[in-house]
Every structure is written in structure tokens, then in C-alpha cells.
Amino acid sequence: MRAAGLHDIADIMSSQAVLIANKHTTHQDLIKVIASRIEGAVIARRYVMVEYNLKRADLAKAVEIAPGMRSPTLSPLDETDWVAVKVMVKRSGLADTLDRLKGVGAEDMVVYDIQNSRR
Question: Mind listing the pLDDT tens digit for each residue in 50-68?
Fold first, then answer.
């Protein structure tokens, strides 16, 4: 809408999607799959993936800033005292998180959208 120069005049209705399941259904497996897919889509909208390079000595400081869902994924670089770090970061605080990571030595930062996720 904004690209076309349009804006909201009034909200006519707001709604939400709800998954309702019968606890006695014979399709419990299907309900779990659907719920997992919905959760994955919700997580993908809230988070982005951030990758960066960092000296291993600075890793603890970076993990305090962006710990990820469980923990960061680390890959060794050819320079033995450096690692590549991949971590999910909340989209809402992304700019601040990148600034703070840069402040503890993160370099070569790349951010990309997550299409879907599963826990």
C-alpha cells in the first residue's frame, strides 16, 4: 500500500488464526505436524539469521549479545584463531545487536531472512 501512496483510513476488523483440535481425534500426528509448521512460520517471521567472523578469544562476549535459540553454530576458518558464527537473532532488535557484535570484534556480518524453522 505504501509503495502506491495509499494508507489506512480505518480498521474494519482484526482477526487471528487459531488451531482447534479435538483431543480425542485419531489424527493426533497430523495435528502435531500442522502445529509445528505454524510455529516454524511464526519463528521465521520473528528472527533473522546472522553470520559473522570473529576471533575465538572474543566468542564469549559475542554469545552474551546473541546466544541464538540454543547456541551459535561455529565453523573453523583457515586462520586458526578465527571462527565463523551463525546465530538466529530477533528481527526487532537487529540493528542494536549488529552494532554490539561489531563492538566486540565481529567482522564480515551477513543477515538473511529465514523461510521457515523447526525446533
Answer: 999 999 999 999 999 999 9
Separation between Cα atoms, residue 117 and residue 119, nearest integer Å: 7
Measuring CA to CA, which residue among 22, 73, 82, 76 is closest to residue 49?
A: 73
**How many residues make up the chain in this entry?**
119
For residue 70, give the amino acid letter. Answer: R
3-state secondary structure (DSSP) of residue 69: coil
| Helices of type H across 28-78 | 28-46, 59-65
Dist CA 79 CA 81 (whole Å): 6
Predicted TM-score of the model (pTM): 0.77
- With CA atoms as reference, report the closest residue to 60 among 35, 85, 28: 85
